[in-house]
Design brief:
The chain is an alpha/beta fold. It has one domain: Rossmann fold (3-Layer(aba) Sandwich), CATH 3.40.50. It is built from 8 helices and 7 strands. Strand 6 and strand 7 form a beta hairpin. Helix 3 runs parallel beside helix 4. It starts with 10 loop residues before the first helix and ends with a strand.
């Protein structure tokens, strides 16, 4: 079964769904185990069910050029790179050499290392340094929440019409509904969701998979 992180869906339902979804392979299971050994920070890794979805969306949309903001130990990048196929290229933006060292070992084991361009720098700096004609078919954002709107506005102009921008944690374990929660992360996610919902440049659906995944299509 696929691994699952039931943050907003009933645990029994989430487990049933995972039991009937494609399971991680040996490389993915090894990466999950190595990430879990990091301790509490391992919660930043996406669920296996999300990995299946990312790979399927990349393949189904025929994406060949993708960008990821927030790579951590590389599970999502591995999934996207597989979906892009041998001719595809994924630009990964992260600030941690320690965590991405784990990622690079898993990419090598999976045979997708040559599809991935990892850049260690603040993602907004990496975006600003790209050529004016640099565009993407697919994007995935799973990074610091206060910058979500900045990442969105940095990526959307570079996304081709019909391209997909996927954003993780947009239901924030249900805390988006808690009026008493005024923390910076929660406020940033609420502001992001409100902005995207009325943005005429896109269409969006918020999926209840894991901690909430917004699938945004550029018009």
């Amino acid at each position: 079964m696929a691994t699952v992180k039931p943050d907003v869906v009933d645990v029994a339902i989430a487990t049933y769904a995972a039991d009937h979804s494609t399971a991680p392979d040996d490389v993915q299971r090894a990466l999950i185990a190595e990430t879990e050994a990091l301790g509490g920070v391992s919660r930043m890794q996406i669920g296996g069910d999300q990995g299946v979805l990312l790979e399927m969306l990349a393949r189904a949309t025929g994406a060949r050029r993708a960008i990821e903001i927030g790579t951590f130990t590389g599970y999502s990048a591995l999934a996207i790179a597989r979906g892009l196929g041998p001719e595809g290229r994924l630009l990964c933006c992260d600030v941690s050499e320690t965590w991405t060292a784990i990622a690079q070992r898993s990419w090598e084991a999976a045979g997708v290392r040559d599809r991935i361009d990892l850049r260690i720098a603040p993602a907004l700096d990496t975006l600003a340094a790209l050529g004016a004609d640099e565009t993407f078919d697919l994007a995935f954002v799973d990074a610091d929440k206060p910058n979500y709107l900045h990442y969105y506005e940095g990526v959307l102009p570079r996304l081709r019409p019909g391209g997909l921008l996927l954003v993780d944690n947009t239901l924030w374990s249900g805390r988006v509904l808690d009026a008493a929660d005024t923390t910076a992360d929660t406020a940033a996610i609420r502001a992001f969701n409100d902005h995207v919902a009325v943005d005429p440049r896109v269409r969006v659906v918020v999926l209840t998979i894991s901690d909430g995944l917004s699938v945004i299509e550029k018009r």
